[in-house]
Design goal:
single chain, 273 residues, mainly alpha, Muramoyl-pentapeptide Carboxypeptidase, domain 2, 2 domains, two-stranded antiparallel sheet, 12 helices, 7 strands, binds zinc ion
Length: 273
């Protein structure tokens, strides 16, 4: 074993997600207390049962808001039940891309609106199964030579937001996209179609991933709009995944009482290209 490989192995063992989270805490990266608008985004019936989560059906919200970050894996082997072909639904895409049916209309509208503004976007990467992410991650490990480095660019299997079927890379020209006018457009408009862009430059220390301005995660227009309003893309003290944690915690908490201390289990969000 070479020194480099040995070092990589030691790092891989030492930097378990919990350790990484502890380090993030230690350097003061905890997000602020959940603001009032989180709980205000939940609609309850007279019995206190949550009936809407930022205008989404609670069952849909439970799936759409599942944590998929560097620290938190999806349920093992998770795959959504309503995957459809993007091309068959009239959505420009790179090869045979699949998406959840629930995001088809917003995705198509986003791409059409971008085109009207002179920007070419398409589905460069949509749903990726856990098995496929094994290949994606292995290719990045081969490229970078060690897993920790690869994990800055690519999610480990089970941790990719692409496994949700609601996450889209809106290009496959990654390097050319950064800093482009199309990236600016997406940054300013993705929320109107229910997408957030979790991997910002500002949040790199929190998410553990390099910035990916092409990577959109669908959370519905109501929540994406609120996130845009609080300027999440410029903030280093919280990222989109932190807000999703708050929403999940609030939705799972009773209507009154001391809810809200939350069970935040993650400190760093995200996945990759
Ligand atoms: Zn991506």
């Amino acid at each position: 074993m070479t020194r480099r490989r040995l070092l990589a192995l030691i790092l891989a063992v030492a930097m378990t997600p919990a350790r990484a989270a502890g380090i993030a805490r230690a350097v003061g990266l905890d997000p602020p207390t959940p603001p009032d608008w989180i709980r205000a985004g939940l609609e309850r019936d007279d019995a206190g049962t949550v009936v809407r989560v930022f205008e989404l059906d609670p069952d849909l919200a439970r799936e759409v808001l599942l944590p998929a970050t560097k620290a938190d894996a999806l349920p093992d082997g998770y795959a959504p039940g309503d995957l459809v072909s993007a091309a068959a639904r009239g959505i420009p895409s790179s090869g045979a891309q699949r998406l959840r049916a629930v995001v088809v209309d917003d995705t198509r509208a986003l791409i059409q609106d971008a085109a009207a503004a002179g920007h070419e976007l398409h589905v460069g990467s949509g749903f990726r199964s856990q098995a496929y992410q094994v290949e994606v991650f292995a290719a990045q490990v081969a490229r970078w030579g060690d897993e920790e480095m690869a994990n800055r660019y690519s999610a480990r299997p089970g941790h990719s937001q692409h496994q949700l079927g609601t996450t889209i890379d809106f290009t496959d020209a990654f390097r050319g996209f950064r800093g482009s006018s199309a990236a600016d457009w997406l940054r300013d408009n993705a929320h109107r179609f229910g997408f957030v862009l979790p991997y910002t430059v500002a949040a790199t220390a929190r998410t553990g991933y390099v910035d990916e301005p092409w990577h959109g995660r669908w959370v519905g227009q109501a929540l994406a709009g609120r996130l845009q309003a609080v300027g999440y893309q410029d903030r280093g003290d919280l990222d989109a995944d932190d807000v999703l944690d708050w929403v999940r915690d609030a939705a799972g908490a009773p209507a009154s009482g001391s809810a809200g201390s939350g069970s935040r289990s993650r400190l760093s969000g995200g996945s990759t290209a």
